[in-house]
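User: Can you help me understand a structure? I only have the sequence.
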Amino acid sequence: QVQLVESGGGLVQPGGSLRLSCAASGSIFRAYRMGWYRQAPGSQRELVADITPGGSTNYADSVKGRFTISRDNAKNTVYLQMNSPKPEDTAVYYCNARITIAATTTYWGRGTQVTVSS
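Assistant: Let's start by predicting it. Here is the structure, written out as C-alpha cells:
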C-alpha cells in the first residue's frame, strides 16, 4: 500500500513559478513510475508528466518546455516544477504512483489546487 500526499499548490500569477511536491509512503518508492495528472472543472483528468524508475520523463505537449518533473528516491518524493504557468493550467493536480508486477497497481493522492490568475 502506498499513500501519496501532495503539497505546494496555491495561487500563482501567469509567468510566475510554483513547485508541487508529492511525498510517498512505502519502502519501494524507487520501483514506481510516478506521475502528475490534473483535472480542470468540466474536464477529464489528464496526464501532465510522468517519470520512470530510471528517470526517463514524459510530458503533455501543453506543458513541454515549461514544467519539469523530477524525483528524489532518497526522500520518497516526486516534484513538479511549474514555470511560466498559464491560466489554462488551472486545475487540481494529482500525484500518481504506478507499478506493474504481473498486474498494474495504481495509487492516487487527494490532489492540490493550482490556480493561475493575476
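Now, to help you interpret it: The radius of gyration is 14 Å. The longest strand covers residues 91-101. Let me know which part you'd like to focus on.
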